[in-house]
Amino acid sequence: xxxxxxxxxxxxxxxxxxxxxxxxxxxxxxxxxxxxxxxxxxxxxxxxxxxxxxxxxxxxxxxxxxxxxxxxxxxxxxxxxxxxxxxxxxxxxxxxxxxxxxxxxxxxxxxxxxxxxxxxxxxxxxxxxxxxxxxxxxxxxxxxxxxxxxxxxxxxxxxxxxxxxxxxxxxxxxxxxxxxxxxxxxxxxxxxxxxxxxxxxxxxxxxxxxxxxxxxxxxxxxxxxxxxxxxxxxxxxxxxxxxxxxxxxxxxxxxxxxxxxxxxxxxxxxxxxxxxxxxxxxxxxxxxxxxxxxxxxxxxxxxxxxxxxxxxxxxxxxxxxxxxxxxxxxxxxxxxxxxxxxxxxxxxxxxxxxxxxxxxxxxxxxxxxxxxxxxxxxxxxxxxxxxxxxxxxxxxxxxxxxxxxxxxxxxxxxxxxxxxxxxxxxxxxxxxxxxxxxxxxxxxxxxxxxxxxxxxxxxxxxxxxxxxxxxxxxxxxxxxxxxxxxxxxxxxxxxxxxxxxxxxxxxxxxxxxxx
Amino acid sequence: xxxxxxxxxxxxxxxxxxxxxxxxxxxxxxxxxxxxxxxxxxxxxxxxxxxxxxxxxxxxxxxxxxxxxxxxxxxxxxxxxxxxxxxxxxxxxxxxxxxxxxxxxxxxxxxxxxxxxxxxxxxxxxxxxxxxxxxxxxxxxxxxxxxxxxxxxxxxxxxxxxxxxxxxxxxxxxxxxxxxxxxxxxxxxxxxxxxxxxxxxxxxxxxxxxxxxxxxxxxxxxxxxxxxxxxxxxxxxxxxxxxxxxxxxxxxxxxxxxxxxxxxxxxxxxxxxxxxxxxxxxxxxxxxxxxxxxxxxxxxxxxxxxxxxxxxxxxxxxxxxxxxxxxxxxxxxxxxxxxxxxxxxxxxxxxxxxxxxxxxxxxx
Lengths: 515, 364
Known about the structure:
The complex is a heterodimer.
Chain A: H1 2-11, H2 27-37, E1 44-51, E2 57-64, H3 70-82, H4 87-90, H5 97-104, E3 110-113, H6 116-123, E4 127-132, E5 138-142, H7 171-179, E6 187-194, E7 200-207, H8 213-224, H9 235-241, E8 253-255, H10 258-265, E9 270-274, E10 280-283, H11 295-298, H12 301-330, H13 340-350, H14 355-375, H15 378-398, H16 404-417, H17 423-461, E11 463-464, E12 467-468
Antiparallel strand pairs in A: 1-2, 2-4, 3-5, 4-5, 6-7, 7-9, 8-10, 9-10, 11-12
Chain B: H1 12-24, H2 27-39, H3 43-67, H4 73-81, H5 83-115, H6 122-138, H7 141-151, H8 154-161, H9 182-192, H10 203-206, H11 216-241, H12 244-247, H13 253-260, H14 269-299, H15 305-322, H16 326-357
């Protein structure tokens, strides 16, 4: 009762006990304390039994049956202890937790603890607590149960050539998928438990002989400094990690592909896995790395280079075509080819809105349709697409609400925005596009140049984990051009990229290089 | 947010690109006319001689800067010539810096108002350019270095259009005869084109911030040669295209040149050159603005960068209001930029001698 009242005082409104709370020698007190802590918790289970030693000993297992594997508890813990114990144990006068851990139970992941906080924390992730009478220690046995889904290809990162597996929601499986690709003892995994309420496991993976120690320390420090109550997805820690949260450019790469994660680690980068989500963070990253796909490395260099140039061109078109159109129509009509002027201007004269408003209405509608499409079931989404295309594309032109040129401009910018391999890039593009449109509508080509100067300055100022975001253009790194805007054949890539830099600058150790 | 610490370090190559960016800005716009008025057909020879003088002077500047590797020009000048004279020189440099920002902005806004947006008031352009400059200068020097690197490739746009074989408008006879006015004409021309290589004197301000100082001399010389080559090509091709009397009456012959000559592949060269000149003139103003801010901080021992940046911006804007039409712009430009180069030609030699005589600095 003393312990119980102490718990009440200690806990107050909070659920997790303080760091220094310890278990009692009295098994009943321990059970009562935990029962009190987990009051109104339907999946809380206490199972009492007797250990079959010379002198039968009272014991109990405590767990949450929704996340602990009851089959393991039943067959590997209780059955082992209730059946006849080994002779050496039988001969002992009294049982101790350490004895059960080392001589009786066969589970590979067990730890003794007297700390209530540690025990409760482990229960929350599927562990089972084993108490025996007259012992103030409990044995924390890992017995997690998971309802994992089958490994499948990530929908947003599919490839025509290359592996088709993707991360799942289970962090241990995800670590395993990366480990299977890099069979090297220098692969290190450091785990943290983050989120006061969610107690989410977050693991940082890197190759010790490649990743720069200062980068590893930086990532580790930033992870340790995260103080939040919940981490349900990697996006929850992304904003804590990035250098500048108030920019449209993502400074952390997100992937669901194990091959991409492994490739990043082989360049000296670090991956951060979060339990409960397939979205894995890759740091540091640069502007040009965000426009690359794993397939770039699986296809032949010449095709990959073309694809990368397309994506870059797509980025320029997606961000600037609308503003270019506004500058042409509003200010620099002399730049429009002569034969196009009557066609363009006749249609424009029939539309009641100014070009900026016309473009914004159209663009906002398209963005809304896309956003709606993301949430809708596939069949409804198709209907929405068709309705949108007919209403906006055809009816709006017939009703003289918009010009055909605007439809073309908006369609091209929308398609090219989604040329980017990651959705987060496409969102950045939308942001940049509206900004450019606004400035171009006020100052024409001068506005476009000013807007782009602003973006270039901004890109030059950005850092991702102290790595220049706009590398290899600014700062200029010639050697990194081999795998940035273009990709040279693999045999020409003998050195590691200097962004973020590695402990081994050569890809193949010097002694093993073939000439 | 995990913003990185402030860094005031530059790579030698970044610094070289900063120098190229800020030197290429104004000179090529006017050099052909000013040099031709002073030296006639020998203008291209005059520039070659001027380049040789500047190269020799650059070696003196390097020697001087090497004696004070951790100090900027305004920091070590008082050690050499006394506190008050040193502070006065520092103050002059600050004033010249602000005047250069104003002149550069005025040229840029004048070009935009003349060729791009005819109805928008010029002050509007000045305000926009200043806002962008403030945004850039608020960051550390590393960002300036990166921007200079990133925009360096824009300089190549310029060189492409000035390669003589790409156009068939040129006539070699327009360059004949050589040495038409003798050495007198060349001497006169040298005085007139002093302004064109303004910007190189900033070497003395930025030297202490360069990480790899061992490569500094190499990069400095290469940047001067690169800029010299662009200027020479610009001067040479315009002399090939325009008759002498015609060239003498064009305000900015380079802009006229791109609007009359039809270049292969690209048709809308004026649009491309708007980008080019905006970029290089903006870089010029930015590099001078950073120089002014650093100098003010050091001369007046003030550390609040934000206030100084706004102060320089306001002063720069105020000066632009004093500059009037095209002729006024040219007059201001020649005075201010010639003073910049004049100081960089006279002061380093003088100060190096004082440093050696008084055994000041590292080599002393």
